[in-house]
Structure formats: structure tokens, C-alpha cells
Design goal:
It holds the Pfam family CERK_C. One of its GO terms (biological process) is ceramide metabolic process. It contains 15 helices and 24 strands. By secondary structure, it is of the alpha+beta class. The protein has 3 domains: 8-58 and 142-196, Pleckstrin-homology domain (PH domain)/Phosphotyrosine-binding domain (PTB) (PH-domain like, Roll), CATH 2.30.29; 199-335, Probable inorganic polyphosphate/atp-NAD kinase, domain 1 (Rossmann fold, 3-Layer(aba) Sandwich); 342-355 and 365-451 and 462-551 and 570-591, Tumour Suppressor Smad4 (Sandwich). The strands form 4 sheets. Strands 14, 15, 16, 17, 18, 19, 20, 21, 22, 23 and 24 form an 11-stranded antiparallel sheet that branches. A 5-stranded parallel sheet has the order 7-11-10-12-13, sandwiched between helices. Strands 1-2-3-4 form a 4-stranded antiparallel sheet, with no helix packed on it. Strand 22 and strand 23 form a beta hairpin.
Length: 635
């Protein structure tokens, strides 16, 4: 019988209660025989792992308490009792047992010219202690279990435990049946369907130990390593030692990207930017495209992911709706990915000599020099000054941004500039339309459909646009590729900016009084107020714009007094995904869904799960959700 039409229906015991368990077409359901209200539905797309066990514990043995002391743990640490509700256990990733020495970490030295070899995170049985060997035989090496030995089917699956904060956690359930033949039948069927999910099994992971609070390695060891091991994902871990090392490794011909199902970074927005800049450059090199003056930007065929461990983690927040590290790891493991716009920054000085006022896309000639790619925001003025000034205070850690920000706030500098924005003459691109980018976003799907059909610019041709010239003195000019929301700025620059529509939002903040600057900062940190509500802020939705510093066209060739000239000729720097960009006159163009990123869409309010499936648990203990999600503060 075809697997799609095959139905499994048996009775299992869960926590000393009989449950009717049903599986068909990728949907697993278990409900209490005595009460149909105690029902849980889990799609196979949310299942992380399935195994069989001799023991009634969710992992083949009781959880081992993690030692919080710096000293090595005793030879035989006491086991902690499992805490589970009446239907199934709650699995927190920091309590997943990890075999001692199970992951080999590759550290790539700054002076090394060789790419390290791939290492598995599963370890060898020769490296295990006696206790670990027993666990491996009871739980991990399920395929070697003799028939008749195992009566427990163990499932680990992902559950959305708090929709308001978009946090996911791993749950575990142990199903008991006295007939090992039935347990083996269920295990074989679920394992087969899991293998069909096309999930990543080999990942190249770059870890930046110096970003944010400098705790990326500790976060990886505590959260990422156990979860990847639980899902059977092999990790080749490279700990970077200097800036631009990720870029150098990815663009190196000595590393074969085809050996991996995805590239992942553990760090902040700058680490993520370094990764996709290197990946796109590597793709251009493989396609024989000039990386300095590319005729077009090719789309890489390998997805990338980010594990947040930086200062703000704007990209992770916009992709997953949260900076919760466990949630981001779960999304990478589940393997679903979607397109993300990437904006390219070109030098406008060379372009102005040949085609004044023309865009790189419209000339038909090769584009000018490519300076950088960015995924979150490109900012000139206030934020650019902060990035440039904060480099002198790296010893302060993340606090350097607060210190530099306070200094630049008091300075209240404005910068003269001219911006040419290409707007949709039909008026369909409104940055304040109130439509957020959520799961199965119609706007992003439409943009992707046009790209796949060869009509990348079909919905936004140059003939449908008209240039708008904006001149003046600005406190800040920002091109937002995504909403740029984060914990510090819940609404971000533009809350209705989409991840994959091929457009970016240009935010212009006019230079004004110190009082209005204070209003700006308070609005950026507000959970409800938006920048578009301020009278001195303008937002335009466009595919590209050209920026020229100092507003030279305003002078009309007349001579300027020395004092005024000094004021007008003052220039700032660009803050490009946290990195300082020294070129001032630039052209910025958005590339629709240039890269694929591991993520699951942010669910709209009032929905319970993917596909409308109420996976999240009539049988789940609400108190446990509060503990594992946000301690009840999000209710």
C-alpha cells in the first residue's frame, strides 16, 4: 500500500494512561481514550527525532543534571528525576545528555592556510565512558536493537509554546506497547517519513567568539550542540580568530561547499553579513563573474542560517520573530527555508561619469564597482557616526554603542545630501500599508513567482517607476532591507518592510532640534509607536536609490562662504550591517530573494501552527509553557 494512504492506528500507554495513536499522511495524533479532549496533533514536519528504547524515559535514561561549577564533574553524577506532565515530557535543550567528547571542535588559526577537515559531532564508541556506552546501546543506536527488546517509542518534536514571543521548544513523549513488533513497525514508518523531509544532515558552522557578550562558544555548547546531536546533524565547527575570516574561508577554492547541506553562523549581524557576502562572492567566482564589477548577482544554491549571539541580533529577530537561541536552532534543524532579499551597494562616483541619473539596472551595461552586500540596514549620519566612533571603544563591549550614541546625540550633527529615489508611479508600494511579513506571505510569494518565471523585474520595471529627488539636511538616512526590529527597537525602522518582496524602505530623518531627536529615540524604543508617525521622518519604498553627499546641486555653482562651506562639506560614514563603509556616494539596489535562509514563517495572531494544525497541545501543561517560554510574563 502507498505510504500516503497507509494508516497506522494502535493503542499505546503514555504516562500510565491509554492513548489511541493515529498516523496518516504525515500527521500524528494521540488522544486519551477516556477523554477525547486530551488530544495532541503533531505533523511529521515538526518531529526532530524518533527512536526506540528499553526504558520508559524520554531519552533512554534519566536526565543528568548539568554541573554549573567550573570544575570537572564527578565520575558518577546523580541523576535527576524527569519532570513531565500527564501526557508527555517537556524537553529543555540544556538538559539533553551529551556524550563526553562527542563533538570535535575545529579551531581555524589566523595564520593557517588549510581548511580543517570535517568532523562528526556523534563521536566514536571507542571514546565513550561505560555509562555513555549503555546509553548508546539503549537509545542512540536504535538500528542495532534486537527484535523483542524495545517496547517504547520515543518522539522528540518541536512545539510553539508561546505565540506572542514566537518561541519554540522541544517536547518528548514516550509511547509504550507490550508488542515490540508494533513498536518496530511505527519506528520504521516514522523514520522513513523523517528521511523524506530533506533536512540538513551536514552543516558547516562558523562561530565568532568575540561578538556581543563574547559567550557564543558557551551558548553553542549548552544549546546548539545537544540539539544538533539529538537530530543527528553532523557539524563541522570552525571558531574564527579574526575579522573577515569567514569570508576568506567561504571564498577559498580549497573548501567544497557541495559537501554541506547548509552554512550556519553563530554570532551577530556582522557575522551573518560576512557569511552571505562570502557565499555570494563564491557563487560569482564559480560562475566566472567579475566580483568587482558583476553584470548580475547569481543566486547561491545552499541555504544559510544564523544562531543569535550578538549585541542586537536584528536579522535573527526579523527571520524568526525572536532572538531566542533555542528557537533559531530548532528552525535550522527542521530544514525549512525561504528567500531573503539582499541589497547591493555600488560606488556612485564611477557610475556618475558615464550615466548621470541612470540606474545600474537600467543602463544595460555592467554595474559599477560592487562595494558590499547587506541584509538588515545601511545607515548614514547618526548611526554611521556611532559605528565609526565606537570602533575606538571596542574594549567596552556592547556598551560602546551606548556611549558613542550618547556622544553623537549631544553633537546633533546634520549632513547635506541629495537622494534620488525610484518610486512606483502606480502608487502600489506604500511603506505604511499595515501589512506585516508573516508565514506564507502573499507579497513575498508573488515576488518569488515572478523571479522563478524569469520575470525578476516584471512587477517593477523601470518603465513603471519615476525618479524623485529629495534634497536637504538630514540627521540620518537609512535603507532598511528588513524591518530591523529587535529587543531594543521592537518596531524597527519600518515594521511593514518584507523579507522577500525585492524592495527596501528608505527612511529619511530630517535634521531638526534636540527635542525632536529625543522624540526619535523614544519612538525607536517604543513597542507601539512608529517612525512614520513623526513629522520630520519620510519613508519611501523602492527597489533602488542613489545617494550623493553634500547636496552639490544645491549650490548652483556659486561660491560659498568658508563657514558655510565647512558645514556643507561635512561628511559622515555608512554603517553597513554594523561595518563601517568609507565610500560616501553610493547606489543601493535590492535583489529579490538572493539567498535562502533557514526559517519558519512567523505565525499570524490567532493561529496555532503550520497549516492550521493545532499541534500545540491540548495535553500540554500551561504551567510548563510559562516556565519554558517567558515565565508567564507574556500572558
Amino acid at each position: 500500500m502507498d505510504k500516503e494512504h497507509e494508516v497506522l492506528l494502535n493503542a499505546f500507554v503514555i504516562a500510565k494512561k491509554r492513548y489511541r495513536v493515529f498516523y496518516n499522511a504525515g500527521i500524528l495524533v494521540w488522544e486519551d481514550e477516556s477523554s477525547k479532549k486530551a488530544k495532541t496533533t503533531v505533523p511529521i514536519t515538526d518531529v526532530l527525532s524518533v527512536s526506540v528504547s528499553k526504558l520508559p524515559h524520554a531519552n533512554g535514561k534519566q536526565w543528568m543534571k548539568r554541573s554549573k561549577a567550573a570544575a570537572p564533574p564527578p565520575p558518577h553524577p546523580p541523576a535527576a528525576a524527569i519532570v513531565r506532565n500527564e501526557a508527555h515530557g517537556s524537553l529543555d535543550s540544556d538538559r539533553i545528555p551529551v556524550l563526553s567528547g562527542s563533538t570535535t571542535t575545529n579551531t581555524l588559526a589566523t595564520t593557517s592556510s588549510n581548511i580543517p577537515h570535517n568532523h562528526s559531532n556523534r563521536g566514536s564508541l571507542n571514546d565513550l565512558s561505560d555509562d555513555d556506552r549503555r546509553e548508546a546501546s539503549d537509545y542512540l543506536d536504535a538500528g542495532t536493537i534486537q527484535a523483542g527488546d524495545s517496547k517504547y517509542l520515543i518522539l522528540h518534536y518541536a512545539a510553539l509554546v508561546c505565540q506572542k514571543t514566537n518561541r519554540w521548544r522541544v517536547r518528548a513523549v514516550a509511547l509504550h506497547n507490550s508488542e515490540p513488533r508494533l513498536v518496530e513497525l511505527w519506528y520504521n514508518r516514522l523514520s522513513s517519513d523523517l528521511r523524506d523531509q530533506n533536512r540538513p544532515k551536514h552543516l558547516l558552522l562558523f562561530l565568532n567568539p568575540y561578538g556581543g557578550k563574547k559567550n557564543a562558544l558557551a551558548l553553542y555548547e549548552r544549546y546548539a550542540k545537544p540539539l544538533f546531536r539529538l537530530a543527528g546533524v553532523d557539524i563541522n565547527l570552525i571558531i574564527t580568530q579574526r575579522a573577515q575570516q569567514i569570508y576568506d574561508i567561504v571564498t577559498s577554492k580549497s573548501i567544497l561547499l557541495d559537501n554541506y547541506d547548509g552554512l550556519v553562523c553563530c554570532g551577530g549581524d556582522g557575522t551573518f553579513a560576512e557569511l552571505f557576502n562570502g557565499l555570494v562572492t563564491r557563487t560569482m567566482m564559480d560562475c566566472g563573474i567579475d566580483i568587482k564589477h558583476p553584470a548580475y548577482l547569481p543566486k547561491p544554491n545552499i541555504p544559510i542560517g544564523v544562531i543569535p549571539a550578538g549585541s542586537t541580533d536584528t536579522v535573527a529577530c526579523c527571520l524568526n520573530g525572536t532572538t531566542d537561541i533555542k528557537t533559531c536552532i530548532i528552525h535550522i534543524i527542521l530544514g525549512q527555508h525561504s528567500g531573503l532579499d539582499i541589497s547591493a551597494v555600488y560606488s556612485a562616483d564611477a557610475a556618475a561619469k558615464g550615466d548621470e541619473g541612470a540606474s545600474p539596472a537600467g543602463t544595460g551595461r555592467p554595474r559599477p564597482q560592487l562595494l558590499k552586500l547587506f541584509a538588515s540596514a545601511l545607515s548614514y549620519g547618526y548611526l554611521g557616526d556611532i559605528a565609526y566612533d565606537s570602533e575606538k571603544y571596542r574594549w567596552m563591549g556592547p556598551k560602546r554603542y551606548d556611549y558613542s550614541g550618547f556622544k553623537k546625540f549631544l553633537a546633533n550633527r546634520g549632513y547635506n545630501a541629495e537622494i534620488v529615489v525610484h518610486l512606483d508611479r502606480r502608487g502600489k508600494q506604500d511603506p505604511n500599508d499595515g501589512v506585516r511579513c508573516l508565514d506564507k506571505c502573499a507579497r513575498c510569494r508573488k515576488a518569488q513567482y515572478g523571479r522563478d518565471c524569469g520575470g525578476e523585474r516584471a512587477s517593477y520595471e523601470d518603465a513603471d517607476t519615476e525618479p524623485l529627488v529629495v534634497r536637504g539636511k538630514f540627521l540620518m538616512v537609512s535603507g532598511a532591507n528588513i524591518s530591523c526590529s529587535c529587543e531594543r527597537s521592537p518596531q524597527g525602522f519600518s515594521p511593514y518592510c518584507h523579507l522577500g518582496d525585492g524592495l527596501l524602505d528608505l527612511v529619511l530623518v530630517r535634521h531638526t532640534s534636540m527635542f525632536n531627536n529625543l522624540r526619535l529615540l523614544l519612538t525607536m524604543t517604543s513597542k507601539t509607536k512608529k517612525l512614520s508617525e513623526l513629522p520630520f521622518v519620510e519613508i519611501y519604498r523602492t527597489k533602488e536609490f542613489r545617494f550623493t553627499a553634500n547636496g552639490q546641486s544645491e549650490t548652483n555653482g556659486s561660491e560659498i562662504a568658508p563657514a558655510i562651506s565647512s558645514e556643507m562639506m561635512r561628511r559622515s560614514k555608512w554603517n553597513c550591517d554594523g561595518e563601517v563603509l568609507l565610500d560616501t556616494n553610493i547606489i543601493v539596489e535590492s535583489n529579490c530573494q538572493l539567498i535562502q535562509v533557514f526559517r519558519r514563517g512567523i505565525l499570524p495572531a490567532g493561529t496555532a501552527g503550520n497549516g492550521g494544525i493545532d499541534q500545540r497541545a491540548a495535553a500540554t501543561n500551561p504551567a510548563d509553557d510559562k516556565e519554558s517560554c517567558c515565565f508567564g510574563l507574556c500572558n
